[in-house]
Structure formats: structure tokens, C-alpha cells
Amino acid sequence: MEYHKLTSKDLLKIKTLGELKASGYRPISIKEELRKNLIQKIKKKEQVFEGIWGYEDTVIPDIERAILSMHNINLLGLRGQAKTRIARMMTLLLDEFIPVVEGSELNDDPLAPLSSFAKELIKTKGDHTPISWWHREDRYTEKLATPDVSVADLIGDVDPIKAATLKLSYNDEKVIHYGLVPRSNRSIFVINELPDLQARIQVALFNILQEGDIQIRGFKLRLPLDIQFVFTANPEDYTNRGSIVTPLKDRIESQIITHYPKSIEIGKRITAQEAKLEGKPIENIHVPELMRDLIEQIAIEARKSEYVDEKSGVSARLTISAFENLISAAERRLYLNEEESTVIRIADLIGVIPAITGKVELVYEGEQEGAGLVAYNLIGKAIRTLFTDYFPSPEQKKKDKEGNPYVIPLAWFGEGNTLDILASTSDKEYKSSLQKVPGLENLVTAMIKSLPEKEKEFYMEFLLHGLSEYSQLSKKLLDTGMQFKDLFSSMFDMDASEEDFDEEDDY
């Protein structure tokens, strides 16, 4: 009988050690198992880490090389770079089921037992030793490194209650209560945020990684544990909260550096995949492609902002949360106005600010500005960056001899007119407000090729925001929207509040 040709259904029928031997089973280590299954997937051109976008040519090949080399792995990168998700997906490279000695704490291989319990059971029952089957989803253990983690948590300790209950001497190995690491034998064991683990606890991992033996309260146990270790770490941790001690780093064979999406397209794919939109009337909310680009651009602007801590990074969770808030802003408007459908507005980005403020770590200057204002300015910078992809630069057109195409709408504001764009108003009122500005619709239809009719007002509003970001108009944040008016009249408006001038100075 060839063991590797047996189906899962056939395997689950095997109940004893004798039947397992007859099947042709041979023990292999978890690293050999990962390597074997990865080779099969590579040969079949199958994706190993499906849904992990942007790493196809960088991180994933490094991980595959580490698995082929049977290395322990440290994933080093800023927050929100899918490090833990990659570690969890490694379980897909494990065999669906593996045999274990039934009742063993250390998930003993029936043909290569480690624990005294399994050895004694096999010695007593021989080929009649009961066998159970362990599914790959259960062969994953994850521990977040926190300052309160102890050696007993990870490795184990003597259990006095166990000794008293079973009336055992403290010299008996059976009084040991094993920690997470021994109990993860034949599994993938992940320690998240490794630098947060106290140095003395990190030292306890040395022998496990290199020699395979552990010591618990004077018990010198030779336990060649079979574990695939995966660690995650944030580069900022090396200076702010702790560090990975050098001998431990030396024992982790492959350190793989992760990164943020390198393009807006990759970012959009991640956001669309991860955003939780179940139960939302998404089929009734139209999202222009430009708005999806703006959400990703906000994260890009945050990562290079002087107000945001570069070492801390800006998680991909920012764009995911921002997109969810954006859809919720439109959903709320549907319910308020009892409408059946709506189109996302630029003004809806006000609802995205709470998703930004909690996701960025500000430097001192950013704290002085305030998280809300920093988030508002990041939205403005994103609009400014993408504006020239659709419309000519107002700064260049101002000097252009052929004339400024924006002169008609700007002149309307110059006459003292103002325009309020509110996020909660009905679509009819929203369209009516934008139609008041002369020349705005003609500019959009002339410059945006293949413009869908339902996106016309969206681009008209985008044009006003762009002119504001290029200091052609004044834009004031209202409680529920934006107000546009002439830049110079707002500067010399004697009734303007001190906050208005502060806001204009930011532009």
C-alpha cells in the first residue's frame, strides 16, 4: 500500500498503529512536509499565497526560497503589511491530515514518539495503540509577544497540583506542564511582534531553535521538537520598545522584508478584497474609479507626510477602513433622503477623516496641528496630486497665453457668490447646486473623455476641490460639507473668524 496515494477518507479509517504501519506511512518533519507540498504547487503552477497582492515578485519568492531551504522565518515590516496573514496561510502547505498518538500532549508521531506518555502507551499496547488524525487547520499556534509572557507560558513549568493529584514525586517527568511551544510540536508556531518579548524570554528559545532540547525546572529533557517557527517584527521596535537579541537573530535563518503596495492599482485590489461590505446596499451606490484612486492616494500622501511618523508606517487598514466609511456615508444619505440609489461625492470624504486619525502616528509637529486637521490636509493633497491627471494645472494655465479655461467659474465666485456642497443633501439638490456655477459642466464634459452621465456632477465637484487645492478658490470645512467662495474676498472678509484665516494659511 502507498500511503501518499490514500485519500483523506481512507486515512480517517486507520485507527491503530498496526494499520498505520501497514499503510506504508513514514514520518517526515514539518519542514520537509512544507517543502514537499510547495514543490508540488510550484510544478502545478498553483498560487501558494492567494489574495496576497503586490508581493508576487518580491516577498513571496523569498518565502518560497526559505521554505525550500527549510528555514525558520522572520517577517520584518511596518504595520499592516500582511505579515500575520502570510504566516496563517502557510498551513495550506501542510498535509490535510497527519497521524498522532491519541491523547498525547505533544502530538506525538506514532512512529517517532517524544513524550513519555506516548512511549509507554506504545510499549504497552504495541500495534493496538490508538491513532487519531490531526487536521492542518489545527496545526497552527500564534502568540502575541507581550511583556507579561513568561518562560512557563512558552516552554512549561512544574505543576504542583498535578503532582499532588497524581501523588507523583517532583523527580517524575509527569509533573511537568508543557507550554505553548512543546504543545505545538509538528505545527507552525508564530510569535508576533518578537522584539516585544523580553530578552530573557528570547534566550529561552535558543536551544529550541538550534539544538532541539528544553530545560524545565531542572529537568533536562531531550525533546527534538518538530516546529516551523515564523516570527514577525516591526522595524520601529528595534529602537522604541525592544530588540531581537543577536544570538536569536542568528538562529533565524531567513529574514524577509515586507513592504507597502507599490502602486495605486495594487492598493485598490487589496482594499476591494478586504473591505467588509456585507449587508450594505452596495449595488445602489456607484463609486467612480477616481474615488477609489483618491482613497489609495490618501495613504500614499500619509506615508510621505512630514506630520506622520515614517518609522511607524501607515497600515493598509487605513484605506480599508476609509473605503468602508465612504460607502457608509453614501448609505446614510440614502436612508436620510429615502432614495433608491446615489453616487459617491467628494464631500463624502469628510466621513473618512475618523478612519485616518486612528491609523496614523503623528510626530510632534503633527500633534501640534491636530489629528483632524492633518487628516483633512492629507485628503486635500491627494486631490491635488490626482487633479492634473484629469484637468490642466491651474498654475500653468494662469500663465498660458491661450487663456485660462477656468476663468468663467472663477469669475462667478469673484462676483461674491458662494457654494455649499453638503454630504447629506439629496442627489437632486446636489446636482442643482453644482449647476449654478457657470462653465463648470462644459469644462468637465470637454476634458473628461467617455464621461458617464451619472459621474458628471462628481467630476464637477472634483474640479472645484482641485481649484481650491491650487489656491484658485477658498474652501472652508463645514460641519456637514464644504463651502467654496472667492479666495480674495474670503481673505479680506472682515467678518471672517480667526479659524478661517488659520485654515487659509494652511493652503
Explain this structure to me?
Residues 494-507 have low confidence and may be disordered. The termini are far apart. This protein is elongated. The strands form 6 sheets. It has a 5-stranded parallel β-sheet, covered by helices on one side. The protein is an alpha/beta fold and 507 residues long. Helices cover 43% and strands 13% of the residues.
| Order of adjacent strands in the largest pleated sheet | 4-7-10-1-11
Number of helices: 25
Helical content (DSSP H or I, runs of 4+): 40-55%
Silhouette: elongated
Q: Note the gap between the termini.
A: 76 Å
Rounded average pLDDT: 89
User: How would you sum up the major sheet?
Assistant: 5 strands, parallel
What percent of residues are in strands?
5-15%
- Write down the Rg: 31 Å
Produce the secondary structure layout.
Blueprint: H1 8-11, H2 17-22, H3 30-43, H4 59-68, E1 73-76, H5 83-89, E2 97-101, H6 116-125, E3 131-135, E4 140-144, H7 151-154, E5 156-158, H8 160-166, E6 176-178, H9 180-183, E7 187-192, H10 199-203, H11 206-210, E8 214-216, E9 219-221, E10 227-233, H12 246-251, E11 254-257, H13 264-274, E12 285-286, H14 289-303, H15 317-337, E13 342-343, H16 353-357, H17 364-369, H18 371-387, H19 394-399, H20 407-414, E14 419-422, H21 427-435, H22 440-447, H23 456-469, E15 473-477, E16 481-486, H24 487-491, H25 498-506
Parallel strand pairs: 1-10, 1-11, 4-7, 7-10, 12-13
Antiparallel strand pairs: 2-3, 5-6, 8-9, 14-16, 15-16
